[in-house]
Design goal:
10 helices; elongated
């Protein structure tokens, strides 16, 4: 009958169980969540679920798994997370222009960036893979369609290229770091995002001063100084505002209270 109990497929049971464990968000259940996610990743999609849902589900599960292991990241955990994300891409391969692909590539970039920053071995390779995946993500959203996703991605690319330059001494990587910072400042403008803009100016000052030293170019050094000055104007303003706010608070706190 309609109300007769219906037995769920094992994969569907695991999906529901993983969702519950994610909602509980308790470190006590991390190992159980990891085991469940791996079972889902190695199984076929349940018949009751549209195959179009799988890339979204796997992307979410990969993020959940990654967040559960990020403080104890190792090569084995990395392999599992990357495998889940790549499975999601396989399910979504017919949707060539899908923004979800850009999201998954961005997530893969974040995984390898974390590995480059926190794992002792293969920093160079992990840095390069993070660059590759963030670059792939850019094909799916640009400055005009998804400006803040674009700005965040190019900012991360700049940091990664600077690290890559430190590993390789490849001057082109340093140029790329400057290029992507300049792309980021087109999104994070001085008027809309003064603090982020100031941070970008400070980094441009650093990167360009390095380029000036290696290329022995006075013009690049002059631009680097201008960037540092730009940063300083914002930093001074916020420092002044902070001092004014502090003075106001001191005034209020020292004002005699009548009873």
């Amino acid at each position: 009958s309609y109300f007769q109990e219906r037995k769920l497929e094992k994969t569907m049971e695991n999906l529901i169980f993983a969702a519950i464990l994610t909602a509980i968000n308790d470190s006590e259940y991390v190992s159980l969540l990891k085991q469940t996610v791996q079972q889902i990743n190695s199984s076929s999609p349940p018949n009751d679920l549209s195959i179009k849902c799988m890339p979204y589900i796997l992307n979410l599960l990969a993020l959940t798994y990654f967040n559960s292991v990020v403080d104890d990241l190792n090569v084995n955990n990395m392999k599992v997370v990357v495998s889940i994300f790549k499975n999601a891409l396989d399910y979504n391969k017919k949707e060539i222009q899908s923004v979800l692909n850009g999201v998954i590539y961005t997530n893969l970039g974040q995984v390898y960036q974390q590995a480059a920053e926190n794992l002792k071995n293969n920093k160079y390779n992990n840095c390069k893979k993070a660059i590759d995946f963030y670059t792939l993500a850019q094909k799916y959203y640009n400055r005009h369609t998804y400006p803040y996703d674009f700005g965040n991605t190019v900012y991360k690319l700049s940091n990664l290229y600077f690290d890559y330059w430190k590993y390789t001494s490849d001057i082109q990587s340093l140029r790329n770091a400057v290029f992507y910072l300049r792309e980021a400042q087109k999104v994070f403008t001085k008027i809309m995002f003064p603090k982020i803009w100031a941070k970008i100016q400070k980094k441009l000052g650093l990167y360009l001063s390095m380029m000036a030293v290696f290329s022995k170019n006075d013009e690049i050094a002059r631009i680097a100084i201008e960037n540092y000055k730009n940063y300083q104007t914002i930093a001074d303003k916020y420092e002044e505002d902070k001092m004014i706010e502090l003075a106001k608070n001191n005034e209020i706190n020292s004002f005699p209270v009548s009873h």
